[in-house]
Amino acid sequence: MDISNERQQKIQNLEEKFNKIDQKLDTHLEGLLWQKPITYWDYIQTDALLSLQTQRTTLPDEMVFIMYHQVNELLFKMILWEIEQVSYAENLTTEFFTERLGRISRYFDMLTTSFTIMQDGMDVKQYMKFRNTLTPASGFQSAQYRLVEFASTDLINLIDARYRENIDRNTPYEHAFEHLYWQAAGKDYKTGKKSYLINEFEKKYKKEFIDFMQEYNTLNLWRKFKQLPESDQQNESLREAMRHYDKTVNITWVMGHFNAAKKYIESESGPQEATGGSDWKKYMLPQYQRRIFFPELWSEEELANWGKDAL
Ligand code: HEM
User: Fold this and answer.
1) DSSP E strand boundaries for the chain
2) Which atom of ligand 1 lies nearest, measured to the CA of 254?
3) Residues 6 or more apart from 255 whose CB is under 8 A from it?
4) What residues contact residue 40 under an 8 Å CB cut-off, 6+ apart?
5) What are phi and psi of 172, to 5 degrees?
6) What letters, b where the CB count within 10 A reaches 16 and e where it falls short, cover 34-68?
7) Which of 67, 275, 284, 293 is the most buried (most CB within 10 A)?
């Protein structure tokens, strides 16, 4: 049998690949004979994916709510994936950094522009009924959203503005964790007692969060930026990409989210409580949270007016 040079080369490459892991090429070739051809549905796991939408009520718009949250979680995963590529890149260049930030921002842009699916895409009366079956769960309990934050910036920028002066890079992670800005939404704002919502969240994720905080202490996007040579840090495209990302996550998304929440929660008369029970109106505004991933990349004036233009 004539075997082309090209094929011979491929066989040799395969031989080397399997030798390296003490495997026999012949066994793998025999396996190929019996392997099922792949299909779209097996590869994408469509059946598994489409079996994850379980309603708690009979109201059709609850489906919109569930599926849109799931789409969000998938996009958060895509964002975390790209951040990891930047964080672990060998010989990080400004081109690669900028290109990956572009991907990340495109995903977050999708999340911000599509928030109207929540704001306009659900019947208010239905929402007000099915939300009662979701209490005390809240999007606040999205672990991936928190991971995106930890992976994006230094911890100090995620600390509640009221405690920043007493916390620095030597503060133990456990202590820093207790002073993260979002702890405020998990506490009764009058008594300071932690709510069931946050206690459950911490029971499930606190250990993972502390490990992740430690891992990204030197690998987060801001650290990676600061580790670049000074001249690279002045690269205009990179700086613009960083600023765009910061603004999209911390102002545009936050305002889209706030406006959706406002529409539904305020659609009822009487006391307006969020499912998570936070002092939501104050807590959710960027102006109040002052969550900024890359403060050094903004002017004094921009910092002073953070989130005000978006109101
Ligand atoms: C009608 C739709 C929505 C409403 C009314 C709403 C409402 C709220 C409220 C009131 C809070 C404050 C914490 C609390 O007391 O629960 C909150 C937090 C949060 N929600 Fe939503 N939300 C909606 C959609 C979404 C979606 C689609 C996501 C995407 C995963 C999401 C993710 C989050 C996150 C990550 C937080 C914590 C934000 C932070 O700590 O700054 N929410 N939401």
Assistant:
1) none
2) 41
3) 286, 307, 310, 311
4) 46
5) -60, 145
6) eeeeeeeeeeeeeeeeeeeeeeeeebebbebbbeb
7) 293
Extract the tokens encoding 22: 């003490």
pLDDT tens profile 239-295: 999 999 999 999 999 999 999 999 998 887 665 666 655 567 777 888 888 899 999
Rounded to an integer, what distance in angstroms lies between the CA atom of residue 183 and that of residue 194?
A: 8
Ligand 1 atom closest to Cα of residue 291: 41
Burial 237-261 (b: 16+ CB within 10 A, else e): ebbebbbbbbbbbbbbbbbbbbebb
pLDDT computed for residue 257 by the predictor: 93
Q: What distance in Å separates the CA atoms of residue 292 and residue 19, rounded to the nearest whole number?
A: 51
Beta-carbon contacts of residue 224 (< 8 Å; ≥ 6 apart): 86, 87, 92, 97
3-state secondary structure of 159: strand
Q: Rounded distance, CA 144 to CA 71, Å? A: 12
pTM: 0.93
The verdict on the CB of residue 275 being under 6 Å from ligand 1 is yes
Percent of the chain with pLDDT over 90: 82
CB atoms inside a 10 Å sphere around CB 306: 19
> Measured in angstroms, how far is the CA atom of residue 120 from the centroid of ligand 1?
16
Give the number of the atom of ligand 1 that is nearest the alpha carbon of residue 69: 27
Task: Give me the sign of the Cα torsion angle 302, 308, 309, 310.
Answer: positive
